[in-house]
Amino acid sequence: MNPTLRTVIIVLAVVLVVVVVIALVMSHRRDMAALPAGVSDSTGSIATRGPAPTGLATSGTGADATAGAAPDGAPPTRGASPGTTTPGNAPEPGLSTIDVPPGSTASFYGDSYTLGTGASTPLNRWSSIISKERGWIEVNPSTNGLGFVNNRGTYADDDEPQEIIDSNPRVVFITMGLNDNFSFDRSARQIRKQITADFLRLSAALPGARFVVVEPFWYTDVRPASVDTIIGWVHESATAIGADYIPGASRWIEGHPEWMAPDGLHPNDDGYAEMARRMDASLEALGL
Fold it and tell me: How many other CB atoms sit within 10 Å of the CB of residue 288?
């Protein structure tokens, strides 16, 4: 073969390889940019921004709980965005007029933020504070790392909703949703479906109970877009069963690192005290 022709062919081949590589890289970047907040790419890797778990405090209770790393894929949002509930919003009364006098059982369907992980003692968690103030009997089977789907092992007779039902409460607090942000990338449809299913199941099994649904908590000033999406689904389901709804809870400890426990993931005693103060004011506005 003519040496000049061979050189031309080699150069063209190299140029073609470079073009293909550049095209693949740009395509991958476009795919990643299109992913929703917290979504992993096809290799399973997850973009992260600072420490966070696959479910807050997936084991243990109190300040000794452990945590891993968590996703925050898409660009974060700060402050209120369209459709976002803010702390200044008033609680929304539901359809129930059921009174909850002292001596009533109050059951809490929640995760580590309702269990009180990070507090020096369970007595300092917000659920225990508001229950004591009202003379309620607290039933709190809340579980570290639990979501409507995230870390949910069962959906039957031995799950947390069944524990709520078995306690035969006068009032039910639903505070779930935080941990589902960490499985949102692979389970968004299932999360939305399960929120509806849990709400309908609890309300059907407890027709004599009053339901108070709290906007899902959040733990950092930086928020993936999935936070507001899940908040919207929870709000819709609360309205569907006629529950009282307390908005703004995802921002109750925002901007106050001094209210966080040493793990940086959960409130400390001061943080739970602030949550209790906010919850108390909301409940008073609802007549509870």
Answer: 20
- Map out the domains of the chain as residue ranges: 62-285
Residue 57, number of CB atoms within 10 A of its CB: 28
pLDDT tens sequence across 139-170: 999 999 999 999 988 777 779 999 999 999 99
Q: At what angle do helices 225-240 and 184-205 cross, to 10 degrees?
A: 20
pTM: 0.72
The least confident of 89-103, 107-121, 197-211, 246-260 is: 89-103
Q: In angstroms, rounded to a whole number, what is the distance separating the alpha carbons of residues 181 and 162?
A: 23
102: its two tokens: 């002292």
- With a cut of 80, say whether residue 9 has pLDDT above it: no
Whole-number Å distance between alpha carbons of 54 and 61? 16
Q: How many CA atoms lie within 13 A of 285 on its CB side?
A: 18
Q: What is the CATH number of domain 62-285?
A: 3.40.50.1110
